[in-house]
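Re-run requested by the PI after the first attempt was lost when the workstation crashed. Everything re-entered from the original request form. Ligand of interest: zinc ion.
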Amino acid sequence: MTFAKKTKRFKKKKDKRMKKNTKQEIIRLFDFAQIVSKHDLQLAREIIFIARKLAMKTRSPLPRRVKRTFCRKCNTPYSTKTVRIRIGVHHPQITYACKICGHTKRFPYHSKKRTR
Ligand SMILES: [Zn+2]
């Protein structure tokens, strides 16, 4: 009983550490893609594809700061040339429209509710 408990705890700890490493790896890849995208968009797309595959393989969610930096359909990193951002007037949402494939993604915002 006690042995089983110990191994379980150990496994959990190990998993957590692994996820932390992959998170850093994913963030690093996305940062690299942002830098590369100024010169070579296709290469940046491939880097983002690899980073997303890594997240899927390890079943770790994409970090919060990374989520809104690329198009989910064509993997293009967002910059002033590749995205159009609109803030909703009647609905509390921000719309990201990709200029390359036309894919739109909406994120809600709550200016009063959020305290963070
Ligand atoms: Zn796109």
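Saved to the shared folder this time. Helices lie at 2-36, 41-57, 64-67.
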